[in-house]
Amino acid sequence: MNVDKAVLTFAGVVVLLSLTLGWYVNPYWFLLAAFAGVNMIQASFTGFCPAAIVFKKLGLKSGNAFS
Question: Cα–Cα distance between 44 and 1 in angstroms, integer?
Fold first, then answer.
């Protein structure tokens, strides 16, 4: 697995988890999904993604998007 796939997987898990928690626990959890979406949009324009930095430090090899 490379950094790109890890970032996309992590973002998907965060969105699905926040939707589940928002539905069953408290609607404020939907803000986490909104944050994940905003972070993905800004990363597409700037190339800066905190999750990509963490995954690189964990030893995953670079992909095309976050090199």
Answer: 20
Structure tokens at 47: 């190339």
Return mean pLDDT, the chain: 94
With CA atoms as reference, report the closest residue to 8 among 39, 45, 46, 29.
39
The Cα–Cα gap between 30 and 34 comes to 7
Whether the per-residue pLDDT at 67 is higher than 70: the answer is no
Question: How confident is the model over 5-46, as pLDDT tens digits?
Answer: 999 999 999 999 999 999 999 999 999 999 999 999 999 999
Task: Tell me the residue ranges of DSSP E strands in the chain.
Answer: none
